[in-house]
Amino acid sequence: ILLVGIPESKLDDFTDQYQNLSIEQRIKVGGNSAEGQTQIDGISGATVTVMVMNVGITRGATLLARALGIIETTSTIILPSTVNLEVAPTKTWTELTGEGSIRRLLLRNRQVDEAFKGTKGEGIDQVADSELDDQFTDVYYALADVPAIGKNVLGESEYQWLMDSLEPDEHVLMVLGNGYSYKGSGYVRGGIFDRIQLLQNELAISFRDLDHTRLQDIYLPDAPRFSEMSLFTIREHHGFDPGQPWQFEFLVRRQIGAIDSVFTSFKADYATLDDYLIRPVQPVAEPELELWQQIWLEKKIEIGVLIFGLVVLLGVLFFQDVLVRYPRLLHSIRNGFLIYTVVFIGWYCAGQISIVNVFTFLQAMMKDFSWDIFLLDPIIFIMWIAVAVTGLMWGRGVFCGWLCPFGALQELINHVSRMVKIPQFELPWSVHERLWAIKYLILLALFGLSLQSLALAEQFAEIEPFKTTFLLKFSREWGYVLWAGLILVSNIFSRKTFCRYLCPLGAALSVPTNIKLFDWLKRRPECGSPCRVCANECEIQAIAPDGVINQRECHYCLDCQMTYFDEEKCPPLVLKAKKERKRAIAAGEQIEIIDATA
Questions:
Q1: Where are the alpha helices (DSSP H) in 68-117?
Q2: 110-134 burial, b if ≥16 CB within 10 A, otherwise e?
Q3: Is 412 helix (H, G, I), strand (E, B) or coil?
Q4: β-sheet bridge partners, residue 204
């Protein structure tokens, strides 16, 4: 709702005013502060924006203070009331205003002048002493969706049309005025009604042109005549409760220069009569959940899908000796899981683990450790459990080869490029094994920076393009996007170049590889000497020329295990099959000779 042309620096200056204020203070934007209020300056041309920002900042600070235990939380649950559509007595204007269903905000020139005293607007638009008691503005306001109000003021047919246009839990504010306009200049420039707001508890509801309907006439003969008549829709997402008291806020602006202006506000109360409401029975108060518990409940669907995927992966790992005998099936399962990792874990859940998470955990271990910090992000927490379990049982290769979204994205890009026969480039073994050291050097450098400043280490950890790719989805400065793009493009010609040579996370996870409990990757004495089929086919070059699998570099793709059980591809098995055929032939010939002799 910010009008074009307001520089960001003005927003920064505005928020700087909240330094050293307390959430216990009642903060007011613009004008003079009344008793018990703290006044801060607004922004010319951004009246509604700063009012909403004020509510957002104070409300956010209050919620944060409750979550951290700085202030007490309330356990009272208040269910919203609804308008009773069955109660619609016939009322006159005098009766509606007399009972408080239609409220009035009458301002005189004297009140407005006094409100601007002590501000830059003092003395501007000054009226003569004889006019100080004259009317400045006269505004009536009410909830028009209440039948006793709407049907009498709008008429039966107009009220029915209004109700048909509303979505569930939407309401309508009726504003009728004479004198100083409640529409404001923002309505002309940007469709923003910057002179009125509806306030309820921690809500500040402003209105745009899409919320506005011009009211043509009112059907009460004893009602005054008004120069402006409007209906404003209170949308469902605001969470407005017609059964709770609220305030109508009216802003008055004075121009102090060609561009700059100051404003002050006046508030008037409103409470819907109980006769026109249906109040629900309030349930017994329940203890408020911890913040991390609320987050886990909100993400229960994502958590369920993630756990299901991890169970599928565990099934593949436990039954790998069976699945590798069916290469086509295993390739389909693996490619499908890689797509799941990229789309669901990476882009949908933002579950990409980073080296910064490792440093955060280490720093927490050295200081006052608390699980609450890590439980605030359930997806990352579960992913770390998966890394711990699979790393302990099979090594870090399971994460790098199956669960890392960026690694999976690189592998899928390379897989497609191989399908369309794009030539692949691989470095000689002697060069390749030396380039491994780069990621360990990067890890050491980042770890050293994290000891000095975790924030500084996080900046340099941008060598990982994870945030750009998955958290921000490439909506970032061109330098970060270019870096991520170059890495992904390199996978067209060579598989997982970043993982092999630059990834500090992979380097960190490979450190405890030697403590894994199982070694399920089978090898034969012939592997490496003389057979080098697996070494030549390993697309990340994790198998040395002597046939030894480097567990620190293996991504557990199981390609070598498919070759291991392939009787038509594995040379030792092929040779064994030939010997068995020769023995069978020799045995058959010997039987024929015996039969002929007999």
A1: 93-99, 109-116
A2: eebbebbeebebbeeeeeeeeebee
A3: helix
A4: 199
Q: Which of 67, 153, 139, 64 is nearest to 108 (CA)?
A: 139
List pLDDT tens digits, range 291-315: 678 778 888 999 999 999 999 999 9
CB-CB contact of 417 with 492 (8 Å): yes
Contact between 14 and 27 under an 8 Å Cβ cutoff? The reply is: no
Determine the straight-line distance between the first and last CA of the chain, rounded to whole angstroms.
Answer: 106
485 to 76, 138, 185, 498, 538: CA distances (angstroms): 51, 61, 46, 12, 25
What the block records as the tokens of 398 is 């399971």
Q: What tens digit of pLDDT does each residue of 519-529 get?
A: 888 888 888 88
Query: Element (H or E) spanning 308, and its range?
Result: helix 300-318
Least confident of 114-128, 172-186, 284-298: 284-298
Coil, helix or strand at residue 2: coil
- Torsion of Cα atoms, 170 then 176 then 181 then 186, to 10°: 10
Q: Return the number of other C-beta atoms located less than 10 Å from residue 226's C-beta.
A: 16
Segment 30-61, tens digit of pLDDT? 655 555 567 777 776 566 567 777 778 888 88
C-alpha distance from residue 280 to each of 32, 105, 286, 398, 589 (Å) = 40, 31, 17, 53, 95
Q: What angle do CA 498, 499, 503 make, to 5 degrees?
A: 80
Look up residue 344 and give its two tokens.
């669901």
The answer to whether 256 and 124 are in contact (CB under 8 A) is yes
**Residue 328 CB contacts under 8 Å (≥ 6 apart), including other chains:** none
Please state, in angstroms and rounded to a whole number, the distance separating the CA atoms of residues 321 and 564. 10
Q: Closest by alpha carbon to 51, among 255, 172, 195?
A: 195
506 to 130, 409, 438: CA distances (angstroms): 81, 15, 12
Contact 194, 187 (CB under 8 A): yes
Q: 274 near 84, Cβ under 8 Å?
A: no
Q: How far apart are CA 269 and CA 432, in angstroms?
A: 75
Q: List the Cα angle 408/444/446 in 5-degree steps.
A: 70
pTM over 0.90: no
Spatial CA neighbour of 502 closest among 597, 410, 368: 410
User: 504 to each of 17, 155, 366, 444, 474, how far by Cα in Å?
Assistant: 41, 71, 21, 9, 21
Region at 202 (left for phi over 0; alpha for psi -120 to 50; beta for the rest):
alpha
Q: What is the pLDDT of residues 428-478, one digit of tens each?
A: 888 988 898 999 999 999 999 988 888 788 889 899 999 899 988 888 889
